[in-house]
Amino acid sequence: MTRQAVDIREIRKSFGLEFNLGPVSLSIPRGAICALVGPNGAGKTTLMNLLMGIGRADGGTAELAGHDIRTEEVEVKRRTAYVSPDLSYRAWGSVGRAIDFVSGFYPDWNIDRCDRLLQSFGLHRGERIDTLSFGSRVKLATLFALSRDAELLLLDEPTAGLDPLARQQLFAELLKYMRSEDRTILISSHQLADLERFADHVAVMQAGQVIAFGSIPDLLERYVQLDVQLPHDAPVQSSVLRAISRQQDRACVLLDRQSSQRQSLEELGAEVISENPLTLEELFIALMKTGRTRWQPKLSAA
Amino acid sequence: MPTPQLRLGPISPAAPGALYQQIVDAVKREIAADRLLPGSPLPSFRVLAEELLVSLITVKRAYEELEREGIIYRRQGLGTFVSERGHDRTRAAKRVAARASIAAGVHAGKEAGMSDRELQQLLREELKKSAPNDERHKEAV
Questions:
Q1: CATH 3.40.50.1860 fits B1-141, yes or no
Q2: How far is B122 from chain A (nearest CA, A)?
Q3: CB B56 to CB A168 under 8 A?
Q4: Which residue has better confidence, A38 or A235?
Q5: Residue A270: CB atoms within 10 Å
Q6: In A, which residues are within 8 Å of B53 by CB distance?
Q7: Fold of the domain built from segment(s) A4-87+139-207
């Protein structure tokens, strides 16, 4: 058994001039929940689609659960459960009929867990799918993934349309699922406070690239924000400055403690007034505001 | 083997300190109050994450920290347990921390121009405020 649940090497796909994905490399260790975050259109869904064989990559390779996505597609799909809000189950009529239909495909379907999930997600077998709210349809899709004993879950936006209580129930179920240590979850979501609490690793995407990756505690130790007093002749914006916000000579700067940025700031004549930690949401916003500098992501699986 | 129980109270981002530190402090509190005895088994970090609704990495870090401080220990294949000296260590560390906090409070009070009498009054008031907690504590013990 390989140690990595997801091992993506230099995957790329071109969609013409407006958007190109990659090259993306990402290694996610087994037994962890990894968050995939990024603004709309960053390439999260495209990346997941490529991993699941929806569209072919122009280059690069990827292994899911130790199997190549191109040459061992059946084996990959046997071990992986995938959920997307784009999937529609309306054609099956009721929740119960959809479950009966979908469960037939999977020898690893866990009937007891499925019944428990129905209750926990507040879904009923008799309900018609076309009368469900968007959030309930998302829950139904997640139920299909969690009812199997898949090694790897790829969850694309399973928090979409969910209220805070439903989100907590979802994450409680994900943690239950993670009781077996050989399981791994890759989850994309915009709920960064939830991810900071429940996920172990995070990959931040921007404009088709992974711009930061690591364990969440490590990243939140690595990046901090500095309140700095700048000299009058400081440049408006520079790669050294990485200002999150600025009011004349006073700036809030994103500091990468693993770089020589602090020294460069001092050489610039900046005086550090205070150093403050960031939440995952603040780090995300800071990375987006100061990003598009194409520094190499550190791909250590912490 | 039944899953060991560990009741730690709520862990919240709104409370001071990182989540893993809150778990470390909560375990120490349970040990110091004799609600968790030397040799007691602790749940696996996966089970505790599920109960506290926090990430696996958070609980893992908390356990690693407690292990580093010699408060708990791991036995391969058997699980994690409270060490024999865990109780003394948490209590001794807490005494040192309490003394430092009081010293800092006295220092701040003097800087604000408070007299010894006023400081003593302040301490009495704080003790009074925490009295209901102490009552609960005695019952639990």
A1: no
A2: 32
A3: no
A4: A38
A5: 21
A6: 168, 171-172, 175, 197-198
A7: Rossmann fold (3.40.50)
